[in-house]
């Protein structure tokens, strides 16, 4: 009797002590990486103490309950498959962890499970990528100092990548123009997903893509496989995560990026249907009111955006996903409302400028499994983006405005995509598919003619076109150590009949368990920006012609050789050498220094009559040394050495606008768990310290001809010396300090992110001042503090 009472007391004490600990549930699904069929019977174990395990059910789902809140390591093992070990995953008390995993079948049939896996941290999700790719986590977009929850700014820390300026998130990849970047969301190509981004651009000051709704995704910097097209530099292949299909969860956030509300949860628990929605509204008006300068003078950017994902899985009817992304933004530079001499921002040269932009995408996909080795996926998406600009000029007495310029650009795309994926066996996988896009453009702008007392049309183009992109990829896994991906991509533009056939190749060979070499090649093409392709030229008789409508694609050959080494203590070294030859770039018909390869540069302009006759060359070496998160500490060090040159129609080789020659990044951080009882507590408190330093070659620019500018009364660039001048080297340091408290049901986080903490004066460009008749240098943002508060429950 006494023994029973004692045992009961011990059990009650254990339960009481355990109930006070912060715990959370981990759930997810495990599938075959090549065929995406669910894997039943996979062993899932937490390798951090206490070790808790389970196995996946017949549909590949698993669930582990009562896991202590901490950074955990998850192990996935299954006979006949290569094991997967995910380390240092942050587990929150207020949000269940949904960890989906794809496992690769081994070419060597194993008789028993051996839990010994290579590093999975930066391995690409798309198994057809052999070179120049890495995956990234949502945590990295929040953890890296200076990233401000923006995937583009986060990616600028990777080797081979640099920012064009501090105010925008445009990125230069291996010396290529920012417009060469492909944005893909949920498997569909999308227009520029950034606020204040113009037609044809790929960046902007603020991203519409909310990192709180994104899943782990891929970033590729060259020689990408055959499923990607219409781009020359790189790919953001992004996925939205599915909402929690068991419990409703909520998020509230306020910071520099805006006021934000998010919600997710089950639509049907029985069927695992879920929703995910996030809305954000800008706070820059409040920031301006308290005196914070974000580089726009008295103008205040305004924006709002919405992200949605609906998930409807079914083993019989197939899985249906619906996604939507939308955002609107506006800014007004009103010189008429400023005091004389007051800084009105970048657009303050005696003008009132109104700029409105919008982007919207809605799409749906259906994935259907015919059997365990064959499945298809078909998608449709409708997107629209537009940019309206109005400019009025203020007279010298500052009491009258004269209409000057009007612009209305809009592009609407209807895109269809589909592919069939067949896994013949563990060695051979074939995927064939196509992207078909119907494009409709409305390009209109006009300038005021005082003699006619009316606006004179510069462009009035309403055009439509079809872009076809079929592709095929064959994956051949010779052994577990040796893999090849061979593919073919094609592009056809219906309006002018231009086409491109593009072979792609990738290979990976594992020298040892820790070392591998990688080889990649790709021919890539990109359609000419619509503002050039549909340019209208006004003839003396008042009629218009379209001299550029038969322009061909700009093309490139990209070669990459890489080496990977995984060392002890989660230390990873990676080196890639590359060479890229570009041709059929757009240049002027008359000899000049112009080339479309400089699009996105500070002083880029679009001439009237052009042709495909330009060339370019990018080559360099990218080095990465990274320590993945281990015991609360991480660092990432990258060095890129490169050369980027181009040739215009004058046949002179020059530096491109993006040829900085070198860029180096060093960033790292440490997470501290407060309190003596770090795990067995009702509250878990952590402090994070993160920092980043960037040192890069100065930006290239075209000098201003001062004497001719004085004569003409406006800036005149010395185009014969295009990009012949270079600013001093760029230096910037960022720091981030975060404090997080995890309670039983609520997690709160407060963070301070200080960009350019040393207040370095980095040049942005040069301009001509009519008042002083001098050339002046404009500078990028100085020290810029941002505060973030987030609550999840």
From TrEMBL:
GO biological process annotations for this chain's record?
siderophore transmembrane transport
Q: Which Gene3D superfamilies match?
A: Carboxypeptidase-like, regulatory domain (2.60.40.1120), TonB-dependent receptor, plug domain (2.170.130.10)
Per the record, the coiled-coil ranges are none
- Gene Ontology MF: a single term: siderophore uptake transmembrane transporter activity
Which InterPro entries does the record match to this protein? CarboxyPept-like_regulatory (IPR008969), Plug_dom_sf (IPR037066), TonB-dep_rcpt-like (IPR039426)
Keywords in alphabetical order: Signal
Q: Name one GO cellular component term.
A: cell outer membrane
The leader peptide range reads 1-19
Kindly provide the name given to this protein in its UniProt entry: Outer membrane receptor protein
